[in-house]
Amino acid sequence: MEKTNLLIGFHCHQPVGNFDFIIEDAVNKSYKPLVETFFKFPHIKVSFHFSGILYEYFLEKHIDLIEKLKAMVDRRQAEILSGGFYEPILPIIPERDAVEQIKWMNEFIIKNFGTIPQGIWLTERIWEPYLPSILKEADIKFSIVDDTHLLSGGISERDIFNYFITENNGDRVFIFPISKKMRYLVPFKALKETFNFLRNHKGKLIVMADDGEKFGVWPGTYNRVYEDNYLKDFLEMLSNDKEIQTLTFSETIEKVKPLGPVYLPTASYSEMMEWVLPTEDRIIFENLEKESDKNTKKFLKGGFFRNFFVKYNEANHMHKRMLEVSDSLKNTKNKKAKRSLFRAQCNCAYWHGIFGGLYLPHLRQAIYKNLIEAEKGYRAVSERKDMDYDGMEEAILRNKKINVYIHLKGGKIIELDFKMPPYNLMNVLTRRRESYHRFIKSSSDFDGTKTIHEVITSKEKGLDKLLKYDVTTLGMFGDLFIKGDKQIVDPIYNISNFFEDTVELVGENVIKTYFLSDIGLSVHYNFRGELFENVKINVPVATFSDNIKQGDEKILIEDCFDKKKFIIEYSHPARVTREIIYTISSSESGLEKTRQGLLFTFIYENPIGIKFDLSIK
Question: Half-sphere exposure of 63 toward its Cβ, with a 13 Å CA cutoff?
Fold first, then answer.
């Protein structure tokens, strides 16, 4: 009798920099009960992928999970999937790093589970056509993608319930497409509907693989999956169903013939390709999807993952900083520095969709912390270069204790690193309009029968009152000059003088000079020619402290970070305003406010010269 071949897989991950209590909650609500439930059904085959962040956490605090997984491997129930150790998106990191991160994971799996991994969980399923060559170099035979990758590339629906061969310049890899239908059925819909779908595909191969957090962490799912016994009932029905057999991915390669060749376009899962679109285009795309029939929808592809670096300046800067550090370490044998770099390549803070991601300051700060630590011991040299690929040079001042990255658009600081302890004081996110802001007053409940993609709700009332959009990307000493009816936002500066600890920038009627020292920096404004009537200078600070003392020419932030004091001294009496920077962003549990830091605005009338001194004590 012909059977449906069902491949079950789970991907479990927590970001570098996430709080221990969040990881522990995920262990107790998802990872542990998920593994333990499958352990009770030894004849149900399953594949697991855990990121290296979680493996390190398990080794320290939950060794029993490692032991249970190994027991499942030993009895040939479970397959362990590889991937980049710290869960990078492979196409956006240097190829040498991608290969090495996968090899680190391979070595970990061999050491701890006694098995050689054959395939990877592809982070966020971000596929680019050259990846088969990377995977071959890392000794990987297969990867898991989404059915939308193939459907949008021209593979017919009648062929989609298979696995495939693709190649890049002769480097081959097997491709397994995840069923989007199954992603929305399990664990949300009635089991009868799920099993009807499976039985209707006898002789076919169906991949049910998704986030492990979907089974316990996502809102409403713990009650449904475990307390209401959804998962137990699902596995019992599978055990008793003679028309469905479960296989691991490697078993499938041994027993089932693939189709091929196929060639995939650049792609991810369908939701990701929607999230990357610019706000206005995303709204148009959402409406198009609602209005389109099934035959049209498969051709609505959305955007390209790398354009998150176009959509969010902060993501682009962070990414280019990572590339800069990677280049400086390309010949190093310092494994500690390499580990910090690899941790800084963890994907979560580089993009934003339904999860907080880029909007979460502790995740971004973790990236910067690891980048700063990775650079330790390497010569701190000041330089000028277009490091963010926008066609304009940045002025970069460095010494043993501080890094300062200055953008010529606005002549503002876009990164201010203190190296001991490692902290970027400019780790603040600009407030932007997002497509989901139009639903900010929505209210709905998660009852475990809908995915997080189907529910839009606000986590608290009054979020609409906090909505505010910045006129330009935030940066320290970003300028707004006012002369009559004319407003100059982010005036363009040119570098006139550049030294190891000093850069002089020349703009319209103003010279701005930065001086770097071991304890901080000074910024001098010299106005010339026709004076501005009004000057506003923004100084955002990445701090969560409310212990602030403000005098006529000095601001002191106690406990700014790591018990350090941050001091802003400024010349000439100024009117100073202060506000908390709140962003409103989506998360898996609804729209939420996030404190990004503080914004000080210094307002001068008819200024002649202005001087600021920043220091950390």
Answer: 3
Q: What is the DSSP pairing of strand 142-146 with strand 171-178?
A: parallel
Q: Which two tokens stand for residue 341?
A: 């770099």
Rounded percentage of the chain residues whose pLDDT exceeds 90: 83
Question: What is the 8-class DSSP label of residue 124?
Answer: G
Residue 74 has pLDDT above 90, yes or no: yes
* Cβ-count burial 526-552 (b if 16+ within 10 Å, e if not): bbeeeebeebbbbbbbbbebeebeeee
Predicted pLDDT of residue 614? 80
Q: Is-catalytic flag, 124?
A: yes
Q: Each residue of 364-380: pLDDT tens digit?
A: 999 999 999 999 978 78
- Beta strands 142-146 and 119-121 are parallel
The residue type found at 307 is: N
For the chain, list the domains and their CATH numbers.
4-268 (3.20.110.20), 383-616 (2.70.98.10)
Catalytic residue among 95, 211, 390, 553: 211
Three-state secondary-structure class, residue 430: coil
**Phi/psi of residue 570, nearest 5 degrees:** -140, 145
417 assigned to active site: no
- Out of 79, 100, 124, 388, pick the active-site residue: 124
pLDDT of residue 571: 83
Average pLDDT over residues 120-148: 97
